[in-house]
Amino acid sequence: MSENIVLASDGDREQIMKLYKEQIGREFCAWDEDYPSAETIDFDLSRDALFVMKENDEVIAAISIEIDEDVDGLECWDRKLFPGGELARLAVTPSMQGKGIARMMMKHGLKALKDREYKSIHFLVNKYNIPAIKSYAKFGFNVVGECHMYDQDFLCYEKELD
User: In CATH, which superfamily holds the domain spanning 2-119?
Assistant: First the structure.
């Protein structure tokens, strides 16, 4: 199924927005009607930073390489591992969750970061999102701190890319 992960295109916009909207209101999801937006998708597409998984030409998952100066500026990150890349907006359509798709998307994102010569990955996970924490445990990420941003409490994950 990982062979179905591709760089998103302009033609995927509507399906990506639908996927994002499906996440609103789900437990641990801080997204709302304003975020992620069409502008978020535009920004990701403009940087070749948005990947999607398709099944039967339908977008069933997405992940982005993020640029967020607020997150990059957190004190917990190991500056020896910079430049560090951030993966964000990982979404899987609800009917396909629990099938290892999020893990496949993360693997693809890690490879994309390495291909773009980042030294590490860092990202935030809602500290109460047990399913995500269990999923990420398999990757050997280090929890290097905690923060409160975007009205949520997060664990800060980091790992050197090898």
Answer: Gcn5-related N-acetyltransferase (GNAT) (3.40.630.30)
